């Protein structure tokens, strides 16, 4: 696959003249290497005193931005309060893909409030905030309220915590919100994909999300087993095949397996089954779309097999969604009027 380089658009920053309609709330550091750091300066220029540093993809709050000659600089604050307030070049900041997270509300006591989305309305950005839950945690409901973006400040699970001394010290509302959103997404997709085969897809996504290897074992085909590929297709020489029994044995052993060579550089792919499953996409609430596949990605189907294949997509960049995406291919086979998992591979994407 050819590589697609993401272009930084300054319209996403607060003071840009061509600012996007919805004003972002959550930002992260961006556009430098993982082993590098972003220096925080006392003043908005490269020669100013360094007062701190941040790693890649670190959550920050933008306090203000200024145009300095041909550059744009922003005063930022670490959401986790690990570094002092200071200035960084705006080219190293971007809005987070999903505008979700803990916030504090101006004039309101901190109660683990959590934003789930923001929208533009009459030239204002409004954000939907989860302020609480229903009484029945087994049948979860969300209590929500719209707030003006101007009255919200990004927070961490620690700074958004209850003010009461008896509180645990950190928020865990995101866990319940994510569970609710995941359940709603599966229900929504099930209305479109009514085949009993898709029920297994939903079960698989939940098991990946919860890192539940025993639940995966239960949906593996009892006769055909499960074939896993680290490539964008199934290759007999490098894809790994497991029965229900050997799947759990390999998962627990942590023995490294050979998965072929990367399609771009030809590097050897070696990892254990645990690592393979950890790397599979499982962000259920943010699934972009699901399609039924006729192309089985070279899966070695026998003539007498009854199979169905689905591909689940996640968009990584809305502006370039034709190129910046990731996909998960799931293949299922029917056996004794039940559907089981027989194949998984990832589609390639260009971040």
TrEMBL record:
Coiled coil: none annotated. The keyword Signal applies. Residues 1-20 form the signal peptide. Residues 36-94 form the SH3b domain. It holds the Pfam family SH3_3. It comes from the Bacteria. Keywords: Signal. This is SH3b domain-containing protein. It comes from uncultured Sulfurovum sp.
């Amino acid at each position: 696959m050819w590589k697609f380089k993401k272009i930084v658009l300054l319209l996403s920053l607060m003071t840009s003249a061509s600012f996007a309609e919805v004003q972002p709330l959550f930002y992260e550091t961006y556009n430098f290497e993982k082993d590098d750091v972003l220096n925080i300066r006392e003043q908005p220029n490269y020669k100013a005193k360094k007062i701190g540093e941040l790693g890649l993809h670190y959550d920050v709050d933008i306090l203000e931005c200024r145009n300095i000659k041909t550059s744009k600089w922003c005063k930022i604050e670490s959401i986790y309060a690990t570094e002092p307030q200071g200035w960084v070049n705006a080219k190293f900041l971007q809005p987070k893909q999903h505008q979700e997270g803990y916030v504090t509300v101006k004039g309101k006591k901190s109660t683990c409030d959590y934003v789930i989305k923001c929208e533009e309305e009459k030239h204002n950005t409004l954000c939907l905030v989860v302020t609480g839950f229903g009484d029945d945690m087994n049948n979860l409901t969300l209590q929500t309220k719209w707030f003006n973006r101007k009255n919200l400040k990004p927070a961490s699970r620690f700074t958004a915590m209850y003010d009461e001394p008896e509180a645990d010290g950190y928020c865990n509302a995101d866990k319940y919100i994510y569970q609710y959103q995941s359940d709603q997404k599966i229900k929504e997709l099930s209305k479109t994909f009514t085949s009993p085969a898709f029920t297994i897809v939903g079960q698989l996504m939940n098991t990946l999300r919860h890192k539940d290897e025993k639940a995966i074992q239960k949906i593996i085909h009892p006769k055909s087993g499960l074939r896993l590929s680290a490539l964008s297709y199934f290759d007999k020489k490098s894809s790994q095949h497991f029965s229900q029994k050997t799947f759990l044995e390999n998962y627990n052993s942590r023995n490294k397996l050979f998965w072929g060579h990367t399609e771009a550089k030809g590097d050897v792919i070696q990892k254990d089954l645990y690592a393979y499953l950890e790397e599979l996409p499982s962000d259920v609430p943010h699934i972009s779309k699901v399609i039924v596949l006729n192309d089985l990605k070279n899966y070695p189907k026998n003539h007498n097999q009854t199979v169905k294949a689905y591909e689940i997509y996640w968009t990584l960049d809305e502006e370039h969604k034709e190129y910046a995406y990731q996909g998960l291919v799931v293949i299922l086979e029917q056996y004794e009027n039940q559907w089981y998992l027989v194949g998984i591979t990832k589609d390639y994407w260009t971040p």
